[in-house]
Amino acid sequence: MDELLFHSAYEQFYTMTRTSRAFAAYCRDAFGEDFSQDGFSDVRQVARALEHVQPGNDLHLLDVGCGSGKMLAWLQKQLGGSIHGFDYSAQAIQTAKALHTGDFRVAAIGEIDYPENSFDLITAMDTLYFAPDMAAFVGQMKRWLKPGGVLFVGYQEGDVQPRTRDVSTTVLARALEQHGLAYQAEDITRETWELLRRKRACAEKHHQAFLDEGNEMWYEMLMGQTECAMEAYEAFREKMARYIFVAKKEDAA
To answer: Which pLDDT does position 7 carry in this prediction?
Structure first.
């Protein structure tokens, strides 16, 4: 798997998050919850999913690129049900299995399958741009969803995916339309700019703790990730865009 995008870096990242108190404290301050985030899974963004799924003990929740499973466990606490996740990082899945009761698998997008009509909610926060074929994977997720099931996606352009004109021109929107999945989309670009600035301030707050742990490289990573938000919002949005997509599989006739 080493040839996959950022794979070696993520193995190191999830090894670090397993023991770093500095990183956990940084996540709680920056995002509101410690999900071992290396992206933008602010708890306010994730909580939007709760508006689209009714709680129930018979629910099945799947997270694409689940990391150490902490976001899934938070969703399970709010909704009930059983949790399932996959990630290409073996270190992440090892931690997920140690922390949570659920179905966790080491796999990359395009290299895993589940039975048709399995899930009530599929989440994918900052992971779909790892798909080698977006349209094919959207079709796969549609099959995995139960009738009435919800796909909830945090999707960004301007880094891995090139910036397009607007939400309707994104690769994801075109893939959803290709598979007949009607979607709602919320532009949260300003919220993301503000989050990046908060991430930077929180990283600086915990700088000494990172140093004390010998994790200076991860502090430097956070500072590099957030440099783009130091410019004015108007300049930032010319280069970057972020959306929350919600799509629902039609109920069976």
So the answer is: 82
